[in-house]
Amino acid sequence: QVQLVESGGGLAQPGGSLRLSCAASGFTFSDYVMIWARQAPGKGLEWVSNIYSAGSTTYYADSVKGRFTIFRDNVKNTLYLQMNTLKPEDTALYYCATGKLDYWGQGTQVTVSS
Question: What is the pLDDT of residue 56?
Answer without folding.
Answer: 87
